[in-house]
Amino acid sequence: MAVALSTLVAEADRFLDAARIADYCPNGLQVEGRPQVRRIVSGVTASQALLDAAVEAEADVVLVHHGYFWKGEDACVVGMKQRRLKTLLANDISLLAYHLPLDLHPEVGNNVQLARQLDIQVEGPLVPGDPKVVGLLGSLSEPMKAGDFARRVHEVLGREPLLVDSDALIRRIGWCTGGGQGYIDQAVEAGVDLYLTGEASEQTFHSARENGVSFIAAGHHATERYGVQALGDYLARRFALEHLFIDCPNPI
């Protein structure tokens, strides 16, 4: 079957409630391609590698978490940006991107989907009432050592995580996929035993050590693979479309 591009975009916007969320980039349709959609290719980032794979897969739409046109970005269409846009336009492929709306969503969001992968029970937002902090709080069914939980992360995500171990058992967990290391202080205030995110900064080590919490950096890319897959699956079911997730490995 096929669906109109405008119908697909409208449903994705509605489902994620994208219009209400202030973000660092435009959410929704970023590059317009052919008017009818039969096949969606999803991926974490609209890199050249993903675009080339989408062309090979004869995609009509590329659906990503990390798209283009970020605040503060040079607006000139040159170099890498020119090559990426040329690939989309020359092949009449649309680019559909959702950043914070995909982090926040209670069903297909990156944070909720990562919790399902790691068997964490979601309890609520990391910072209640602050929509700018997209992380969550939750707990494990039974206390365990941080090293054992890090092994679970490794097994699920297929990437060796960075672990700062407080040597205490963990049960209460805070997390924010991607580049959420700056929220460790809010996690400490929320009383977590462990904070998990994608990346780490130099000062993150000291915050974890001096506040007596464990910390895991499991990879920006690795922690954000699941939301876009879930959204692609939802749209494919909704409109009887083909959906293919393509993972372009990224060690960061």
Largest sheet: 6 strands, mixed
What's the SSE pattern? EHEEEHEHEHHEEHEEHEHEHHE
Strand order of the largest sheet: 7-8-10-11-12-9
> What is the overall number of helices?
10
For the record, the count of structural domains works out to 2
Name the descriptors.
6-stranded mixed sheet, GTP cyclohydrolase 1 type 2 homolog, 2 domains, 5-stranded mixed sheet, about 250 residues, alpha/beta, Udp-n-acetylmuramoylalanyl-d-glutamate--2,6- Diaminopimelate Ligase, Chain: A, domain 1, 10 helices
Entry summary:
By secondary structure, this protein is an alpha/beta fold.
Question: What would your notes on this structure say?
Answer:
With 252 residues, the chain is an alpha/beta fold. It has two domains: 3-103 and 224-245, Udp-n-acetylmuramoylalanyl-d-glutamate--2,6- Diaminopimelate Ligase, Chain: A, domain 1 (3-Layer(aba) Sandwich); 104-223, Udp-n-acetylmuramoylalanyl-d-glutamate--2,6- Diaminopimelate Ligase, Chain: A, domain 1, CATH 3.40.1390.30. It contains ten helices and 13 strands. Helix 2 (48-56) runs parallel beside helix 3 and helix 5 (110-118) crosses helix 10 (226-239). It is elongated, with a radius of gyration of 19 Å. 43% of the residues are buried. The mean pLDDT is 97.
